[in-house]
Design a protein that fits this description.
The protein has 147 residues and is mostly helical. It contains seven helices and no strands. The N and C termini lie far apart (86 Å).
Length: 147
């Protein structure tokens, strides 16, 4: 091998590496934009389209966004709509009056019925299981601290 061939080979390898790094850095995923708010009618229409086209994961995500519920509840609801066991109009977010529910959550925490408190918290605030559990545990710690 001649020295000029080795020099050309080294230059080609270095150029290939530089081009590879440049391409890799230019193809990085851009952060996703937050979803645009939908009216209830637009949301239900998009939900129906997703279910009809078989895009169940996207339908579940949209259902959670529209109704503020946990993953299991959204999955069950979307599957019920897909299977014809439920109509979309009847699947509205459950809201109980705030002060009454907050009192019920506090009573459940005081009586050490944490599962019921978590369920009530999830229903009222439309959060997932972990968020509700953390909130109920914080409420319990605060009640214990206050005596």
């Amino acid at each position: 091998m001649s020295p000029s061939f080795l020099v050309l080979l080294v230059i080609a390898v270095v150029m290939g590496a530089l081009i590879g790094f440049w391409l890799r850095s230019s193809n990085r995923e851009q952060p996703a934009e937050p979803p645009t708010p939908l009216s209830p009618e637009e949301g239900q229409q998009n939900l129906a389209e997703l279910i009809e086209s078989g895009q169940m994961i996207n339908a579940i995500k949209l259902y959670r966004q529209l109704h503020g519920c946990g993953l299991k509840e959204a999955k069950d609801a979307v599957e019920a709509m897909r299977d014809g066991r439920a109509r979309m109009e009847h699947l509205e977010r459950r809201e109980l009056p705030g002060p009454e529910t907050d009192d019920a959550i506090e009573r459940a925490v005081r009586s050490n019925n944490l599962i019921q408190a978590i369920k009530l918290y999830r229903d009222q605030h439309g959060v997932g299981l972990k968020e509700a559990k953390d909130a109920v545990e914080a409420m319990r710690a605060d009640l214990l601290r206050r005596g």
